[in-house]
Amino acid sequence: MDFDPLWLLVLPLVFGMGWLASRLDLRQAKRDPRDASKPYFQGLNFLLNEQQDKAIDAFIEAVQHDPDTAELHFALGNLFRRRGETERAVRVHQHLLQRGDLPALERARAQHALAQDFFKAGLFDRAEAAYRALRGTVFEPEADLALLSLYERSRDWAQAGPVAQALEERGMGSFAARRAHYLCEQALQARSEGQTPQALALLQQARQIAPGHPRAQMLMGQWALAQGDSQAALGHFEALLSTCPASFNLAAADYARAAQQAQGSAPIERAGKLLEARYSQDHALALVLALNQLQPDRQAERLSQHLKLQPGSLNAAKGLFSALDLAGAASAAQIQPTLERAAKPLMRHRCAACGFEAAHYFWQCPGCLSWDSFPPHPVEEL
């Protein structure tokens, strides 16, 4: 075969075109990462400047340039959730979970983010299922804490108890007081349904879990009083005074009523001495009112003494008492109802966690859902 001299011209040309194409590809490869990362850094800048709308747009553009980057999806989903766009956050995290190449840790992270989306949206059933799917992963402790909060919000105390126990066994802190509250809530529900023996058994279990917690002991005393068993009620209230004297103020009126219902004068005398001893340690108005139940003839004297000991408390009631006393009121029985009406708006309880105020004492704050955050004393006595 004859050699064609034309190849001497074609071969260098082909070689040159190949070299030029390789250089263009290399330059494009170097330029693409910079171009792809530019929207990402723009999104970070917008996020730092609290411009969430622009940050979302930038992250969406970055995801379009590099759809396989999991971190961009997490950033975008978290932004959607923070803005309340939970449906879009759910779609982002579900898209991550559908990827077959996602590592196990990133899959668990996406599952955890999805559960948070459902919780934020108020879809508690789906959130519960999503959190339960995290069992056996590194997110299990966080998932159990979220499940505990979910069960408390939905007042599912039977489910909350085992979760709190598992967290305690895992070394996440003491949940004994919470578990006692859950059992007390179940006991109240059982009693409302006429299942008194079961309710009492639940209270006994609560006392075993948290012996120093006052709620179960107080409930047992109040229930015994309601059933007419004044002796049993006195025993429960005195046990409360021994184990948790600060919380005894909440049951002082019930204790005085139980002493009044008991036969003979001995229970009244004993209750009076115990209340006087407690008042010498804690100048609480609840103790004064309980003593006034037992000794109504000394109401004016005792209230006057209390107002001298607590000059900054119940100023309106103090001024009213002084005016009526100077005017020569007929009897302390006429003064007491007026004092109670004057003191009522002042005797409020305040949550130590969020500042929520209420006229009644709550074991769980209606505002922030914290347990035992209400001090047993009203605001004016703190």
TrEMBL record:
* Any one cellular-component term (Gene Ontology): cytoplasmic side of plasma membrane
Cytoplasmic compartment residues: 23-382
The record's annotation in InterPro entries points to: CellSynth/LPSAsmb/PSIAsmb (IPR051012), LapB (IPR030865), Rubredoxin_2 (IPR041166), TPR-like_helical_dom_sf (IPR011990), TPR_rpt (IPR019734)
The residues that hold Fe cation are 351, 354, 365, 368
The membrane-topology field of this record reads:
Single-pass membrane protein
What keywords would UniProt list here? Cell inner membrane, Cell membrane, Iron, Membrane, Metal-binding, Repeat, TPR repeat, Transmembrane, Transmembrane helix
Domain LapB rubredoxin metal binding spans what residues?
Answer: 349-375
Q: Which SUPFAM superfamilies match?
A: TPR-like
Gene Ontology MF: a single term: iron ion binding
- Which Gene Ontology BP terms does the record give? lipopolysaccharide metabolic process; regulation of lipid biosynthetic process
- Where does this protein reside within or beyond the cell? Cell inner membrane
Q: ATP-binding among the record's keywords?
A: no
- Could you confirm whether the keyword Transferase appears in this record? no
Annotated function = Modulates cellular lipopolysaccharide (LPS) levels by regulating LpxC, which is involved in lipid A biosynthesis. May act by modulating the proteolytic activity of FtsH towards LpxC. May also coordinate assembly of proteins involved in LPS synthesis at the plasma membrane.
Q: Which family does it belong to?
A: Belongs to the LapB family.
Q: What is this protein called?
A: Lipopolysaccharide assembly protein B
Organism in which the protein naturally occurs: Inhella inkyongensis
